[in-house]
Amino acid sequence: MGLYSLITGRRGPSGFGSASTAEEVTLGIDATNLTAIITGGTGGIGMETARVLSKRGVHVVIGARNMGAAENAKTEILKQNANARVTLLHLDLSSFKSIKAFVREFHALHLPLNLLINNAGVMFCPYQLSEDGIELQFATNHIGHFLLTNLLLDTMKNTSKSSGVEGRILNVSSVAHIYTYQEGIQFDSINDICSYSDKRAYGQSKLANILHANELSRQLQEEGVNITANSVHPGLILTNLFQHTALLMRFLKFFSFYLWKNIPQGAATTCYVALHPSVKGVTGKYFADCNEVTPSKLARDETLAQKLWDFSVKLINSVSKKNYLGFGDTT
């Protein structure tokens, strides 16, 4: 799936392509027995993903930082589908306390969990640290989702075992993962303000999304668990993610309009990997335009993926110990 396919919308082996929409790739799928968590499902491709999944019968739990925007999103979804099952919970992925509170609230609902869609993110932010002292893009886009996934994993394992239905974890990455720091992940200087580049820091976090999914996939396969883990590139879509470079992006879009997708097209790959039966058993892969594609060499580095996993665990434990949070304690 190259540039020609992106521009023309030519369909790939899956039968879908860059012009396919989220509704199209899920047409005819009955998912009424599934429950999904979607982070950042209040706007853009996250909201479209929530809307389409709920249209197919999924009970959608939206984790949102802005609860006002979440209520508006729920109202809009229900306006189009009165039978939609949508639950809203507060979630700030840049805060360990908020992540743990979200997990406690979700567990209190006593719901199964079949799908975890790690969609939320920030992009091209000026240098700043999260409340836990981690560079914000790395904290929100990778570490937050890494912690959330680990805290929900037992629930997903129990659900897949009791239901016999395959669980699926999706990390929404980006083609921007190719534009990162030279070593891929700056393990020794993750918070270094002197070497900080808002673009490369974003690319680093998106590379981390792929590496996380790949290593998680390896561990789940080794354990023999009926859960897959994949990553997706949704495409170029002008959403609120571009708030820090909105004028520049609109300028670039004017001269490269043929490369950009609308929101229904942008949510298609996520919805395809989440629900389509042809993806059953497929794990540790990277998708774009609803087809498997090959990510960068760094993204395929198994040693780097394992190193990132260990680094993430140590980073979370160091912060948790300092703030008395406890990585494994969700009570």
UniProtKB/TrEMBL annotation:
InterPro entries: NAD(P)-bd_dom_sf, SDR_fam, TIC32. CDD domains: retinol-DH_like_SDR_c_like (cd05327). It comes from the Eukaryota. Pfam families: adh_short. GO terms for cellular component: endoplasmic reticulum. SUPFAM superfamilies: NAD(P)-binding Rossmann-fold domains. Belongs to the short-chain dehydrogenases/reductases (SDR) family. This is Short-chain dehydrogenase/reductase family protein.
